[in-house]
Amino acid sequence: MADITSAKPVPVPAPAAAADPRSGYRYYVLAILILVYIFNFLDRQIIGILATSIKAELGLSDGRLGLMGGLAFALFYTALGIPIAMLADRRSRTWIMTVSLALWSGFTALCGFATNFWQLFLCRMGVGVGEAGGVAPAYSLIADYFPPQERARALAAYSFGIPLGMAAGVLFGGLIAHAVGWREALIACGLAGVLIAPLFKLTVREPERGRFDPPAAARLPAPSLGEVLRTLAGKRSFWLLAFGASCSSVLGYGLAFWLPSFFARSYGLGLVDLSLYFSSIILAGGLIGVWMGGSLADRLGARNRANYARVPAAAFLLSIPFFGLGVLSPNLTVGFFLFVVPQALALMWLGPTLSAVQHLVPPGMRATASAIFLFVNNLLGIGFGTWFLGALSDYLGPRYGADSLRYSILYGLVFYLLAAGFYLLASRRLAQDWHR
Predict the structure, then answer these.
(1) Distance CA 158, CA 10 (A)
(2) 99: exposed, middle or buried (Cβ count in 10 Å: 0-12, 13-18, 19+)
(3) Rounded-to-integer distance, Cα 278 and Cα 238, Å
(4) Is the dihedral of CA 252, 257, 261, 263 positive or negative?
(5) Residue 150 half-sphere exposure, CB side, CA atoms within 13 Å?
(6) Contact at 8 Å (CB) between 145 and 15?
(7) What's the pTM?
(8) Phi and psi of 60, rounded to 5°?
(9) Cβ neighbours for 420, distance < 8 A, ≥ 6 positions apart
(10) Residues of 177-192 as b/e, b for ≥16 C-beta within 10 angstroms?
(11) Angle between helix 25-58 and helix 117-131 axes, rounded to 10 deg
C-alpha cells in the first residue's frame, strides 16, 4: 500500500459544507444518473418483451434466444467492466459514462437492422461493450456526492433506474412493436439514448474524489488491480455478498427475460396486454422494493453493520413462496398481486449491498471494486440465468409442453434460497470487514 504520509495532499471540503442539504445540484446529478440508468436497463432488457416476435421471424429456439439475450450481452459487459472501472478511478467518470451511453444506445439501434441470429448476437455484444462503463463509475460518483449516512438511500434511488428502465422497455418496446414492428422498437429506443449523451456530459460536473472520506483515505492514489484484489481478498464479506447477489441475479435476469414469454404462452396475452400487465408489475413492485431496501439499510445498518446483509437475506426467503404461487396461479388478477410482492422483495438487496461495497474499500478503489462485484454478479446472472431458464424450458418441453417455461421458473427458485444463504454468511463478517 502507498505511504500516505508522503502522498501529496488533496484538498477535501469540510463534510458539513459538502453535505449542505440546501445544495440541490447533487439531487440533479442523482436524477440524471437515474435517467441514464433507465436507458441502461431499457436497452438491456427490451429484448425480453420482443423475444416472441424475434423468435418467430428468425426461427430461434428458447435456448438460442437465451444465448442472444444473455450471454451475448454478458461476454463483453463483464470482461470490460473492470478495466473501464480502473480507468474511472483515475480519469473523468463523466466522460466515461457519456461515451458508454452513446455506444450502448447506438448498438441497440443497430439490433433493429439484424437479419439473422449472428448479426443480432454481435449487436448485443456491442450493447454489452457500451454498458460495461455505465454503472461502476456512477456508484463512485454517488459516493462523492452523498455522505456515508445517506449513501444507501442515494444508491437505492439510483437503482430506481432498474425497475423504471425494465418497465419502460417492456411498455414502450411492446407498444411500438405492436404498432410498427420489433425492429422499429429497438431503433427508436436506441436513438433516444444517443440524444441523452450530450446532455449528460454538459450538465454533470466531476466531483472531488473522496470528498466525504477521511483526508488520509482521500489522498491515496488510485491503486493497481492487484492492490484492489489483495484488499478484497482479506474481506470475505465482499465475496459472499457478490456470490449472493449473483445467485439472485441468475433468477432475477432470467425472470425479467422470460416472464413475458411465460405470460404469453400460459395465459395467451397479446403484445399490448402483455406490455401493460408486466410493466405494471415491474414498476409497482420494483420502486417499492428498491426504496424499502435502501431505507431499511440506512436505519438498521447504523445499529449493526450485519443488517446490510440480513435485510436482503430475509427478502429473498420471503419472495420464494410468492413467486411460486404467482407462477402457479390460474388467474391473472390474483397473479398480478402475487408477482408484485416478490418483485419488491427481490430488489431489496440493491441499496444495502451497493452501499456496503462502497464502504468496504477506500475512495480510490470504489469504481474498481464495484466492477469486480458486477463482474461476478453479471457473468453468472446475465450470462447464465437467461440461458439456463431457456435451456431448461427446452429440456422440459417434451414433458410439459406449453407449460415448460412455468416449471423452468419454479425449479429456478432454488437460486433465491442460495442467495439468502450467502447473505446470511456475509452478515457474520460484514461488521469486522467494514471497520478494518
Answers:
(1) 28
(2) middle
(3) 33
(4) positive
(5) 18
(6) no
(7) 0.72
(8) -100, 150
(9) 244, 312, 313, 314, 316, 317
(10) bbeeebbebbbbbbeb
(11) 170
For the chain, the domains span 24-202+225-435
What are 137's three cell numbers?
A: 463509475
> What is the number of other CB atoms lying within 10 angstroms of the CB of residue 428?
13
Q: Which of 70, 190, 169, 166 is nearest to 121 (CA)?
A: 70
Fold of the domain built from segment(s) 24-202+225-435: Growth Hormone; Chain: A; (1.20.1250)
Question: In the structure, how many helices (H) and strands (E) does the chain have?
Answer: 22, 0
How far apart, in whole angstroms, are the C-alpha atoms of residue 12 and residue 164? 35
| 171/152 Cα distance (integer angstroms) | 29
d(C-alpha 24, C-alpha 33), whole Å: 15
Amino acid present at 311: V
Chain segment 352-378, per-residue pLDDT in tens: 888 888 788 887 787 788 888 888 887
Enumerate the H helices of 204-235 as residue ranges. Answer: 215-219, 225-233
Question: How far is residue 295's CA from residue 157's CA, in Å, rounded to a whole number?
Answer: 10
pLDDT in tens, 63-88: 777 777 667 777 778 778 888 888 88
Q: How far apart are the C-alpha atoms of 350 and 390, rounded to whole Å?
A: 25
Region for 209 from its dihedrals, namely left if φ exceeds 0, alpha if ψ lies in -120 to 50, beta otherwise: beta
222 three-state secondary structure: coil
